């Protein structure tokens, strides 16, 4: 379903959410994001975020904002599932 969409037309979090909700999966669930770590000074933090989806292996992502770390984690899940091309 997503393979036909160009990656630049959607972000990884949106693509993962749509896959989790609408995919041909028996167990549909929402991705759940959790901040696992925040390191670095206030002016240059690095966040580590974990995303979990029922029935799937969790993934972690990093970024200078929580949103960037969430995007990275979602992208990693999609890459593992073969639904995202870089």
Task: Provide an overview of this structure.
The chain has about 90 residues and is an alpha+beta fold. The protein has a single domain (about 5-80), classed as Double Stranded RNA Binding Domain (2-Layer Sandwich), CATH 3.30.160.20. The protein contains two helices and three strands. It has helices at about 10-20, 65-80; strands at about 30-40, 45-50, 60-65. The chain has a three-stranded antiparallel β-sheet with strand order 1-2-3, covered by helices on one side.
Task: Give the structure's gist in a few sentences.
With 86 residues, the chain is an alpha+beta fold.
Strand order, largest beta sheet: 1-2-3
N-end to C-end Cα span: 17 Å
Number of helices: 2
Number of strands: 3
Write out key terms for the chains shown:
86 residues, alpha+beta, Double Stranded RNA Binding Domain, 3-stranded antiparallel sheet, 2 helices, disordered N terminus
Task: Compile the SSE list and pairings.
Layout: H1 12-22, E1 32-39, E2 46-52, E3 59-63, H2 66-81
Antiparallel strand pairs: 1-2, 2-3
Helix pairs in contact: 1-2
């Amino acid at each position: 379903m997503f393979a036909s969409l160009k990656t630049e037309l959607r972000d990884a979090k949106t693509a993962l959410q749509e896959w989790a909700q609408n995919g041909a999966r028996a167990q549909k669930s929402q991705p759940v994001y959790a901040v696992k770590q925040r390191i670095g000074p206030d002016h240059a933090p690095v966040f580590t975020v974990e995303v979990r989806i029922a029935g799937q292996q969790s993934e972690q992502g990093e970024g200078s904002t929580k949103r960037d770390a969430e995007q990275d984690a979602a992208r990693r899940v999609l890459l593992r599932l073969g639904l995202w091309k870089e």
